[in-house]
Amino acid sequence: MLATKPMFIALDFPSGEEALSFLDQLAIEEVAVKVGMELFYKEGPSIIEQLKQRNYKIFLDLKLHDIPNTVERAMKNLASLGVDVVNVHAAGGKRMIEAAQKGLQEGAINGQKPLLLAVTQLTSTDDEMLSEQLLIQEEMEQVVKHYAYNAKQAGADGVVCSVWESRLVHDICGTDFYTVTPGIRMENQHNQDQVRVATPTVANEQGVSAIVVGRGITKAEDPVRAYHQFEGAWNNGNETTIS
């Protein structure tokens, strides 16, 4: 299980050397980190091993989406890395999610299975993209609720969604079903390529289980100060402006 209300720092760096250098600069113990495609595809399992040696909690964010058999075998391998959280795309359907959980159980180390999250809709997706590009005619909230319900029925431990759908997910899936939300920004920060964004204070108010913060910390002039500001706003609703 995850610690209460974790805040994952997205290590979106082109190399392991840069990611570890950043963490050395941050110099904060018990930080939870997210390793995505960019870093993992560059460094492979070695970056996970190095992060584990430093006792970081790790969310391995690879968003698997393939036929059930392939996902099951891939998840068995990912579970053997000893990470804490992994994910798939909910659009892969119930059979794929069930296969993912089976693979994680088979590959778990000492019975410690990673939590499985299902990505509902990326925070870069809006209603216009849903209808015009993906040919999904339902509104975002309905799509996320339906995907979350399917994920829970298939045995997932939670979902990745935006802050704005977290309460809806908990209403239909229960408060013990994790909602992990990227797209976290302070009021004065640019949205960049994400559209369904919110502040850490709003995430707290919406009952989110865990947040993911990337460039707001990693690209800040003073990452240590930025980290503590995000953490304070997330845990206490005490939001201050990052300049």
Short description:
It catalyses: orotidine 5'-phosphate + H(+) = UMP + CO2. This protein has helices at residues 16-26, 37-43, 45-53, 68-79, 94-107, 127-132, 140-153, 166-173, 200-205, 215-218, 223-236, and strands at 7-10, 32-35, 57-64, 85-89, 115-119, 158-160, 178-181, 210-213.
Task: Report what the structure shows.
This is Orotidine 5'-phosphate decarboxylase. The protein has 243 residues and is α/β, with parallel strands linked by helices. It has a single domain (7-236), classed as Alpha-Beta Barrel (TIM Barrel), CATH 3.20.20. It contains eleven helices and eight strands. Strand 4, helix 5 (94-107) and strand 5 (115-119) form a beta-alpha-beta unit. The radius of gyration is 17 Å and the shape is globular. The termini are far apart.
Q: What value does the Rg take, in angstroms? A: 17 Å
For the record, give the distance between the C-alpha atoms at the N and C termini, rounded to a whole number: 35 Å
Order of helices and strands: EHEHHEHEHEHHEHEHEHH
Number of DSSP E strands: 8
Low-pLDDT segments: none
Tally of individual helices? 11
CATH class: Alpha Beta
CATH topology: TIM Barrel
| CATH level-two architecture | Alpha-Beta Barrel
- What structural class do the secondary elements suggest? alpha/beta
The CATH superfamily label reads Aldolase class I
EC number: 4.1.1.23
Pfam families: OMPdecase
Binding site for substrate: 12, 34, 61-70, 123, 185, 194, 214-215
Catalytic activity: orotidine 5'-phosphate + H(+) = UMP + CO2
